[in-house]
């Protein structure tokens, strides 16, 4: 996945709920992981997981979003 596609996808998230954004970020991260882009996959989760040594931020997410 190229950077332009990632940016376009990020801009489209602005109208989504927090749970919808979490699910979208997880989906994008999974696609990047499959492509071998591990650092980009971690970056895709930045809104919810800012440091690798910490737990993800799940406040305000419904159970589906928390589980993603």
The helix/strand order is HHHH
As a percent range, the share of strand residues is under 5%
Number of domains: 1
| N-C termini distance | 21 Å
Total strand segments: 0
Report the mean per-residue pLDDT as an integer. 80
Helix proportion: 55-70%
Radius of gyration: 12 Å
Low-confidence stretches: none
> What is the SS-derived class?
mainly alpha
Question: Major beta sheet, specifics?
Answer: none
- Can you tell me the overall shape? globular
- What's the helix count? 4
Kindly describe this structure.
This protein is mainly α. The protein has one domain (3-67). It contains 4 helices and no strands. It has helices at 3-12, 18-34, 38-44, 63-67. Helix 2 (18-34) runs antiparallel to helix 3 (38-44). The longest helix has 17 residues, at 18-34. The relative contact order is 0.18. The model has no long low-confidence stretch (mean pLDDT 80).
Task: Supply database-style keywords.
68 residues; mainly alpha; 4 helices
Quick synopsis:
With 68 residues, the chain is an all-alpha fold.
What is the fold's blueprint, element by element?
Elements: H1 3-12, H2 18-34, H3 38-44, H4 63-67
